[in-house]
Design brief:
single chain; 401 residues; mainly beta; twelve-stranded parallel β-sheet; twelve-stranded mixed β-sheet; elongated
Length: 401
């Protein structure tokens, strides 16, 4: 009886438990043939394996892909192991991950024609101590996204550096249970963007010299909408004044230069304990979705946005949106650091408890023209109950300790 019971238990063990016991390290060195050798390693890897990148510059001509669960790809450091896509053919991403329980750490991706590192449908993925950079600085020809997880659950982005993305440096879309922390986004259009996602903590990051520092958006006509429950806290969001270099037609091409935090059509967004300043447009901007749409399930209005205990530096001296100069002239001074377009009227007003004035443009319908504006100062609001913090599986946290 005991032998039969033991045999039954063995049969019930998850497959990965057996695979991990046979885990191996696959070493890949830089040098001639790196494209074929690295892609072969990613194909032949089995659950539990480590693909170890050597020091040096890996000159690659095509994108890489990983679709095996429970694999670690690890370099010798973001300044030592460099995946160089300067000679990439085509416009795909540098590395595409479509499997679960993947850990990416300690390497760099440079000058991809498309996105830097993309993961799609990859649950429990960890991005740690990575660098994604377009070394020529902010150019429209750069790839759209640096770090780009989408359609996933349980995402940890920790201690990464991204520079030069023509859309968003760190972007998380249509996902749930997300942490972005201890990372730096510089000279991107959007430094950090959380889009159409649920339950995210964005904290202890530095966003500087982008067009917009941190964006929290919800857009129509996507499989997951109704973005909500986002906390943006303890970040340094300074001097995001880079001219917008996104390709025309991209939604972020409409982000005004000089925007610290921008919330569009999202709900239950809490912005607190940040240092925000040196933004010509606004330190914090809350708006409705400004374009026509045909999705009957989409709500274009922001709701339950709360702003408190932030330290504000100068803002509002050069608002880079249509009619900004006229509003400044009518206002007679720099605009207040916090700007709400008035979308949805009083029922959708953000709750502001920072020790700075907030401005209401007074356009209740986001599709209405600026001539309908009824500008005024926004009265302070009552801060709601705190949102719960994000808790990720313990093994994900253990991977970055």
């Amino acid at each position: 009886m005991r032998k039969r019971l033991f045999a039954s238990i063995i049969l019930l063990l998850p497959a990965f438990a057996v695979s991990v016991s046979q885990a191996k390290t696959i070493n890949v060195a830089a040098g001639p043939g790196a494209q074929e050798r690295l892609q072969e390693a990613l194909i032949l890897a089995e659950p539990g394996d480590l693909v170890a990148l050597g020091a040096g510059r890996f000159e690659l001509t095509d994108g890489l892909s990983l679709d095996v669960d429970n694999v670690t790809v690890e370099g010798q450091g973001a300044g030592a192991s460099i995946l160089d896509f300067a000679k990439q053919v085509g416009s795909g991403e540098g590395l595409l991950v479509t499997s679960d329980d993947v850990l990416l750490r300690d390497f760099a991706v440079e000058n991809t024609k498309g996105d830097g590192i993309k993961s799609k449908g990859a649950n429990r993925i960890v991005y740690h101590k990575l660098r994604v950079e377009w070394t020529g600085g902010p150019l429209t020809s750069n790839g759209a996204y640096g770090i780009y997880p989408v359609e996933s659950r349980d995402i940890l982005i920790d201690s990464v550096f991204v520079r030069g993305a023509s859309d968003a440096g760190i972007y998380v879309g249509q996902s749930r249970n997300i942490i972005v922390r201890d990372s730096t986004a510089i000279e991107n259009v959007a430094g950090i963007e959380i889009e159409n996602s649920y339950d995210a903590d964005v904290h202890d990051n530095v966003a500087t010299k982008n067009t917009g520092g941190i964006l929290v958006f919800d857009l129509p006509n996507l499989p997951q909408m109704g973005g909500r429950n986002i906390r943006v806290f303890s970040n340094i969001i300074i001097n995001n004044m880079t001219a917008n270099f996104a390709p025309k037609g991209n939604i972020v091409a409409n982000v005004p230069a000089g925007t610290g935090v921008m919330v569009m059509a999202n709900r239950n967004v809490h912005i607190f304990d940040n240092v925000i300043g040196d933004h010509g447009t606004a330190n914090v901007m809350i708006i409705g979705y400004p374009d026509k749409f045909d999705d009957p399930n989409y709500d274009p209005l922001p709701a339950n946005v709360a702003i408190w205990d932030n330290q504000h530096l100068r803002a509002g001296w050069a608002p880079a949106f249509p009619g900004g100069a006229q509003i400044i002239a009518a206002f007679g001074a720099d605009l207040p650091p916090i700007f709400w377009d008035g979308a949805g009227g009083d029922a959708h007003a953000p709750a502001v408890a920072d020790n700075v004035p907030a401005f209401n443009l007074g356009i209740a319908n986001p599709l209405a023209g600026r001539e309908t504006a009824k500008p005024s100062l926004l009265a302070p609001g009552e801060i709601p109950a705190a949102l719960p913090g994000i808790i990720l599986p313990a093994r994900m946290e253990a991977a970055v300790r």
